[in-house]
Specification:
By secondary structure, the chain is mostly helical. It has helices at 6-19, 37-50, 55-67, 71-84, 86-90, 98-114, 117-129, 133-146, 151-163, 167-180, 185-199, 202-218, 225-240. It has two domains: 1-147, no CATH class; 148-241, Tetratricopeptide repeat domain (Serine Threonine Protein Phosphatase 5, Tetratricopeptide repeat). The chain has 13 helices and no strands.
Length: 241
């Protein structure tokens, strides 16, 4: 599966289809979602509950879920809609993301059934690689409830928080990683970057980046040559300022 920014793609795809007039819910009570997205979503949910076979309304609701960032809800509804009326979905542009939707829903079902760290981490990683960070956060939180001592899961969760403008929560997760592994290069590196560019605590950021540079040099053999050069060059620039 390609590492695409699915959230961004879904939003654009949804918006383009609506503008093209591909779906037009026939109910007169449907409100133009561009005027009041929240109210439109509420009305559409009511209409779909009332008549789940009205595929025009179902499609509009899927689009609004995706555009409003409720990716998981949108994908689940898309899979349900395809089961209900495959021919309708097959002839719509949104069919392009059906395979992705089925894949993610399958991973979620497996995670819920197994309820183990591996299944939740796979789901979290899939959402992370696709840029669907809020759903990735949910999956990693489930995993860490089972085993809070996972370093890899906490590192990715910290990046999820960073990418959703929750910088202080990201630092909290990285601090926990440092308590589990005081010589974790990535924890200091990410913390330094977040402190510098999101929180704007330059003094503290430099201290973390200096520590990251020291660890990078000390752990040189653990990096691939090209990766090591990339990190050390970046850290030399960061610590000079």
């Amino acid at each position: 599966m390609k590492k695409v920014r699915v959230f961004f793609y879904l939003a654009l795809l949804s918006f383009s289809m609506l503008r093209a007039g591909e779906s037009s819910c026939k109910e007169s009570s449907y409100l133009d979602f561009q005027k009041d997205k929240n109210q439109s979503e509420t009305v559409l949910r009511q209409l779909v509950q009332k008549n789940p076979k009205d595929m025009e309304c179902v499609l509009k609701l899927i689009h609004i879920y995706l555009k409003n960032g409720k990716v998981e809800k949108g994908l689940e509804l898309l899979v349900q809609a395809d089961k209900r009326d495959h021919e309708f979905i097959k002839n719509r542009k949104i069919h392009k993301i059906l395979k992705i939707a089925k894949y993610l829903i399958k991973l979620k079902k497996k995670a819920i059934k197994n309820n183990d760290v591996n299944s939740w981490n796979i789901l979290g990683a899939a959402y992370y690689k696709m840029g669907v960070f809020h759903e990735s956060i949910k999956a990693y939180n489930k995993s860490l409830q089972i085993n809070p001592d996972q370093i890899g899961a906490r590192l990715t969760l910290a990046l999820d928080f960073s990418r959703t403008n929750q910088a202080y929560r990201a630092i909290e997760e990285l601090t926990k990683v440092m308590s589990l592994d005081k010589n974790n290069f990535y924890a200091y590196y990410y913390a330094g970057k977040i402190l510098k560019y999101q929180i704007k605590d330059i003094k503290k950021a430099k201290a973390y980046l200096e520590k990251a540079k020291f660890l990078c040099q000390k752990q040189k053999k653990s990096f691939r040559p090209g990766i090591y050069k990339k990190y050390i060059k970046d850290l030399e620039i960061e610590t000079k300022k």
